[in-house]
Amino acid sequence: MSLSHEQLAGLSAETVVVASGRPPRDRDQPVNPPIVLSSTYFGTGPLGDGDRGYGRYSNPTWDPFEEALGQLEGAELPGLLFASGLAAVSAALSLVPAGGVLVMPTHSYSGTLVMAAELAQKGFIELRTVDIADTGAVKEALAPAGPDAKAAAMLWLESPTNPMLGIADIPELTEAAHAAGAMVVTDNTFSTPLVQQPLTLGSDVVLHSVTKYLAGHSDVVLGALVTSNADIRAALLHHRTIHGAIAGPFEAWLALRGLRTLALRVERSQETAAVLAGRLSNDPRIESVRFPGLPGDPGHQRATSQMKGFGSIICIQMKPAGALTGADAADKLVGAVKLWLPATSLGGVESLIERRRRHAAEPASVPENLIRLSVGVENVEDLWADLRQALDTLGG
Ligand SMILES: *Cc1c(COP(=O)(O)O)cnc(C)c1O
To answer: Which domains does the chain have, with CATH numbers?
Structure first.
């Protein structure tokens, strides 16, 4: 037999990513699970809960990843894979009842914000966006004063936020949300369960864009949800089955393959990000650096208390350079790198760099001169040398 849920529960996360989801330890069994390509399954008579039934209901290739992610997030139940991070967002938002109030960070992931705003425009939900780092403002949005004020049905958390790296006080906000009668969903994409476990901090549901760190190689698009609440999980599973945003078996297999090295990748990229953030904050051509690991960062204390590291995303804002505006200087920097890859997305083995406002959907409150750096696993000095030569093209 492969390791049981109980055996895995006693192991550290670095071991779980490697040891979970293996086929039975019997002679001549493969050491990796196979990819099962079948749209249907043998069977007669009524379908029960344990039956696979049809390819949209379940696929054996999803199971090892879902089991591993549940373990890593400290959940009592396996996770649920979805076709993309946004498919998972859609399923999670379906838990807001008709007309219910959704409280969401102003700087949530842009696709999440667009989806919530469209639901609100249609009158399906009521949306309140708040600065998630401002605990008092979030509490006010959750349970406004006044006899007719409507309490929230769901608090959406993203911490650190994308791309502003704002840090929410997760334990305090989940407590306030529950007191107001709201469910809490936390997008944990930036941190991974190795750095932050929102369920243990009080969240009801954890969301991942598996596309990013979990799969880790910028070669699949997938999402996932994790919860310890059986009723919530059943509702999310029903949504996946009926709305049909399921993972392809090959993508699910690649995600598990990527997960095997998650601990190594996170360890290396966090270490490198800390070094680079320190050096960038001393560069005269840069106006400001956001990285929760910097002692002067506004989110540093909170991050220290609820995370096991600081992640590997850095945001910098560029100063004007000569005739160039800060935004132009940012574009020039992104155009001048030779090793860093100018591309959107994050969390892969390769380091990526992007001026976020090149996306029309990015909130206007994200500064035009802001560059997001996703630090990969390359050699730190090679990454630094490339950034430095690109910064030197700006003069100064
Ligand atoms: C990328 C991302 C998403 C959306 O995930 P997709 O896999 O692209 O659909 C959601 N949240 C965060 C924080 C992200 O970075």
So the answer is: 5-259 (3.40.640.10), 262-392 (3.90.1150.10)
